[in-house]
Structures are given as C-alpha cells and as structure tokens.
Design a protein that fits this description.
The complex is a heterodimer of chains A (242) and B (369). By secondary structure, chain A is α/β, with parallel strands linked by helices. Helix content of chain A is 31%, strand content 29%. In chain A, the strands form three sheets. A six-stranded mixed sheet of chain A has the order 6-9-10-3-11-12, sandwiched between helices. A four-stranded antiparallel sheet of chain A has the order 2-1-4-5. In chain A, β11 and β12 form a beta hairpin. Chain B has 369 residues and is α/β, with parallel strands linked by helices. Chain B has a domain of 208 residues. In chain B, 16% of the residues lie in helices and 47% in strands. The longest helix of chain B has 14 residues. Chain B is globular and about 65 Å long. Classes of the chains: A alpha/beta (242), B alpha/beta (369).
C-alpha cells in the first residue's frame, strides 16, 4: 500500500524528518507514537502532500505510484485520506455541500452515515465553524467515511474527546479500516498517531513506531511499545539507537 | 395577471443579462409587479397585487396630489451634480405605493436597462404605508452592445410605521458604464429596511453612499453588499445609517473581492440619541493586485450607544485550500468553493426567492477566479 524510503522533510527551512523509511502493507494498520514536536504530524502531512512540508530527499510510493511530487488532490483521488487534528474553519461552505462534493460512495448512504456520526444537524452549518473538539472529530470521520479512502491517516483521533464520543469514533475508525473484514481479504490500511493509545481499544494495530526528533527509534508490537512508554516515558526510546 | 410588455424589444442575449440581475423577462410568474425602463422609455409598469401600486412617476403625481411632498424630500435636488442633472430633466421612473397593511409574497421587480450610449436618468419613489411589507428587486443592466453610458438614479424610500421594505439591487453593467445611484431612506417607528447590493460584473465606475435615517423608535436598517471588482472597475460603494430614535439599530455587512479593480468600501453609523446600537463588518479578499480600501466609521454623540466595527483584508488561506484538496477537490475547485463561501451572506428576514437570486448572481460570476 504505502512505502516510504529515506524521507527527509523540511518545514520552514528546518529539517524535521531525517530519513524515515517504513512499509505499510495492504490491510494493515500501523501506529505512530512519540513526544510532542517529534515530527509525527509532519510525517502525515508530508504523506498527504501539504505545501508546508518540503521533501528534500527520499520517496513516497503509494500503490506502486511515486507520489512524492504529486499534488494533494491527486493523492486523495488515488485513495489517501487524512483526519485533521485542527482543521480550518471554512466560512460560507456548508458541511453537507462539502461532503457531497467529496463523496466516493453512493449518495443514498450519506444521510445514514451522517446520522451514525450524530452530524445530521451539522450538515447545514459552515464547516468547523464553532464546532467543539468532539464535533470536529465526528465531522472529520464523517468526511472520511464519505470519501472512502483505501489508506487512512488519523492524527490523534482521541484528543479532546469525551468517553461517549470516543466509543463512537473508535468504532467508526474501525469500520473505515475494514476491521470487520477478515484480515486475509482486508485491503484498507492506516497510519494512526496516538498519545494515549485509547484508539487501540476499538481496533487492532499491526505495527507500532516511536518517532523521536525526526528519527524512527523503534518498531514493534504496538501494545508492547505503548506499555513501555506508559511505564518509563520516552527516555529509553531516546537512548535507543536501534 | 397583466401581460408583460416591452421585453419583446430586447434581444435574447440581453434578456440573459437581465436574468442575471434577477429580472424575469418572460412572465410575471413569481413577481408581484413589474417595471421596465429602457434608456428613457418606460415600457412596462404594472402591479398584480391588491393594495400595491406601481405607477409611472408622472401618472402618480397626477393621481396623488400629496406625492409632491415626497418628491426630492429624502434626496435634495441640489445635493450634487448628479441629482441636479436628474432634476433638470423630465422625471422618469416609478412610484410604488404599498397601501396600509398590504403585503406582497413575491418581489416587485424593476428593471433599468441601458441600450445605446447615453445618460439614463431615473427617479423612483417607494412609499410603504403603515404595516405594509414589500420586497423589491431592482435589476440594472446595460446591453452587450452598449460601450459607454451612464446611469443617474434617484431613489427615495419611505418606510412607514411597522412597515418593512427589502430592496435588492443587482448590477450587471458594462465596462464603459458609470453609475451614480443616490438613495435615501427614512424609517419610522418599528419599521425595517433591508438593503442588499450585488455587483459582480465589470463596471467602469460605481459611486454611491445610500443612507438610512432611523427616525422612529425601534426602527432597524441592515445593509448587505457583495462586490467583486475586476481590472478596470472602480467601485466606491458605501452605506450609512443615522440612528435618530431610541432602540434603533443598524448593521452594515460587506464582502468584497478585488480581482484587479478598485473597491472603496465605506460604512458609517452615526448614533445621535441614547439606546442605539450599530455594527459594521467589512471583509475583503485581494485575489489579484488591486485596491481594497475599507473605511468603516462609527460616530457616537451621546451616552449609552453601542457601536462597533470590524474590517479585514487578506488573501485566501492556503490551509483552507489544502483542506478541501485533501478531500479530492482540485486546486481550482477548492479556490472557487472558498470564494463562493466567502461571498455568501445570509440575510436575515429576506424572502427565500431573493436569497436564491443573490446566490444565483454569485454562482454565475464565480467562474474564472
């Protein structure tokens, strides 16, 4: 699905990612951990192609296509989708109109998905205008459900979300990633940034990474990594040069 | 239903231009009344609503002796060179009288059409008597063949006690046309005046500063303007409200985009008595080097007034474009969508049909950004 090779990325002339390499096969979900400011969001934004992240070396291959220099919309049309942590407000654009413009599923399914995400009454509101933390997350997941990407990136899906919304979001994220489909025939993949690991209560992840200061320091079983980080913080990861 | 006269003399292309201004040229369906002025000739004036009259100004003056007291009352004839010019020429235009308690469901349409190179003068008077409610849509356009010309328009609007007037003006002039509307409104106790202005097409020059005097307690005025100025357009469009009675309030809202042209967006609220409120909001986008000059003024003269203004000029935020692109919209689609949203002003109290007309005008013009 996704292959990243020796990726170097600058933001505002400062190198943030120093040679990241990873492979996410079809049907797998990988999890990215790391302290604040380590470059996790930059990595997701670079994969999606945002202008602020400048690739100075390395490649991003998506389903066999080198997308390193491709514009954002082309990557989206190839099947990438991202849940924003802090999406901008778009004044005058109704969420409903935006969703219909971005749809890759049968139109008839949209009302049912909006209902499922408790967003029906938001369809007539400007995108993200005055949305609470939980509402933004629900809106983002709804947009992804309608966009129906084959590769899903979630940037801290649990931040600012109460327990009730967490269950709703967790289940929806699991369905985005086809967790209800047997792993042998599952095709959707994902990369999820998490600080708390709460999202793992709702979906299984296959591989975990720890990103420190722009380097991938650790790769392994996501639950084991999370357990170790919870017990001793990122100190060991910083010391670890593996 | 009265037959529509006059529109048969206008070419198909020009009819399309008129439809951009919200004018229904084919039938009176969905319209409470209609008025058509081509150059200096009135081709049609008629109402199909009880208790609402649309008359040619000369007919109205003959019919109602008292009307002379309303003429040149809100707008003094010697106000400036344009009002003087109109006063020196034969008076042409309409008088709309909404009699006491009359309410129109559909808008009354008036169309000022300029064909050939000339100066068109218009003098219109709107009288909304106590408790009446009228919605006006004024479409102003020039023929595709008209290269140069001018339009001087006097509008005197009288909103009576507890009456409501909404006036929506959509301009579709040409690159060589100069336009000088002179509009003044007075609003009596409990009256409401909503004025909407849309100008999205190239126009050599627009210069206007319509003013509402809120004379009676609880009167309300709201001005909303949507302006796009392309290269070669000079649009100096303001709106002013003078709060002269307690519990009056005014809101002035502008969305303006320069695509190479000049926009002077003026706004003024003057609070002369206590217990009055006013707010000015002006947001501008510069898409291509041009001038976007916002001049909001708030002028309070006594204790217990609340006046505020906010003005912002900027560019389309890159993060918004990228957000939409991440959902698969192309850069051009994303840009057009954001601009469309920027221009979208929801006007409280406006009938759906007029809101739709404004949206159509915006949709038809957003190609090419």
């Amino acid at each position: 699905m996704l292959e990243i090779d020796n990726l170097h990325v600058e933001v505002g002339e400062l190198e943030i990612l120093h040679g990241i390499s990873l492979i996410i096969p079809d049907g797998q979900t990988h999890v990215l951990l790391g302290p604040n400011g380590s470059g996790k969001t930059t990595l997701l934004r670079t994969i999606m192609g945002f202008g602020s992240s400048k690739v100075t070396a390395g490649k991003i291959i998506f389903n066999g296509v080198d997308v390193t220099k491709k514009p954002i919309d082309e990557r989206a049309r190839l099947g990438m989708g991202i849940m924003f942590q802090r999406p901008p407000t778009v004044s005058g654009l109704k969420l409903g109109k935006f969703i219909y413009a971005a749809k890759n599923i049968d139109e008839e399914r949209i009302p049912e998905l909006a209902e499922k995400m408790h967003m029906t009454e938001f369809l007539n509101r400007d995108v993200n205008a005055g949305f609470s933390g939980g509402e933004i997350k629900r809106s983002e997941i709804l947009q992804l459900l309608v966009q129906n990407p084959s590769f899903v990136m979630l940037d801290e899906p649990e931040s600012g979300v109460d327990v009730e919304n967490m269950a709703l979001l967790g289940k929806a994220a699991a369905s985005l990633l086809e967790k209800d489909v047997h792993m042998k025939i599952r095709s959707k993949s994902g990369l999820i940034i998490t600080h708390t690991g709460y999202i793992l209560d709702y979906l299984e992840a296959d591989v975990g990474y720890v990103l420190i200061d722009g380097y991938l320091r650790c790769t392994g079983n996501p639950r084991e990594i999370l357990k170790s980080v919870k017990e001793s913080g990122y100190k060991e990861c910083m010391a670890c040069r593996k | 239903m009265p037959e529509m006269k006059g529109f048969s003399e206008i070419s198909k292309e020009d009819k399309e231009r008129l439809s951009l201004t919200g004018i229904n040229t084919e039938s009176m369906e969905g319209r409470a009344g209609s008025f058509l002025l081509v150059n200096d000739h009135i081709l049609h004036a008629g109402s199909n609503t009880d208790n609402v009259e649309i008359l040619m100004i000369e007919t109205a003056l003959q019919k109602y002796d008292w009307l002379k007291n309303y003429m040149w009352n809100n707008v003094p004839a010697d106000k400036d060179q344009y009002t003087k010019y109109v006063a020196e020429h034969p008076q042409r235009g309409y008088v709309i009288i909404a009699h006491k308690g009359a309410k129109t469901t559909f808008p009354l349409q008036s169309c000022m059409f300029l064909q050939g190179d000339s100066i068109q003068t218009v003098h219109n008077i709107v009288i909304a008597e106590e408790g009446s409610e009228v919605h006006l849509i004024a479409g102003c356009a020039s023929s595709l063949k008209t290269k140069e010309g001018a339009h001087y328009g006097i509008n005197e609007i009288y909103v009576g006690k507890n009456a409501k007037v909404t006036s929506t003006m959509i301009h579709t002039w040409g690159e060589g046309i100069e336009v000088f509307p002179r509009t003044t409104t007075t609003v009596e106790e409990g009256g409401t005046f909503l004025s909407n202005y849309v100008c999205m097409r190239p126009t050599k020059m627009v210069q206007m500063y319509p003013t509402a005097y809120l004379k009676g307690e609880g009167a309300v005025a709201r001005f909303s303007s949507v302006i796009v100025a392309n290269t070669g357009s000079y649009i100096d469009a303001g709106s002013r409200a003078v709060l002269q009675a307690p519990n009056t309030s005014a809101e002035l809202t502008t969305r303006a985009i320069t695509n190479g042209g000049t926009i002077i967006s003026r706004g003024a609220i003057i609070a002369e008595v206590p217990k009055t409120k006013g707010h000015i909001e002006c947001r501008g986008l510069i898409l291509k080097d041009g001038i976007m000059h916002a001049i909001p003024e708030i002028d309070g003269r006594v204790v217990d007034v609340e006046l505020s203004h906010e003005a912002a000029v900027g560019k389309i935020a890159r993060d918004e474009i990228e957000y939409l692109m991440a959902r698969g919209l192309s850069e051009d689609e994303a840009t057009a969508t954001i601009i469309r949203g920027f221009l979208d002003i929801k006007i409280e109290g406006l009938p759906d049909s007029l809101q739709k007309q404004i949206e159509n005008a915006i949709d038809s013009a957003d190609h090419g950004f």
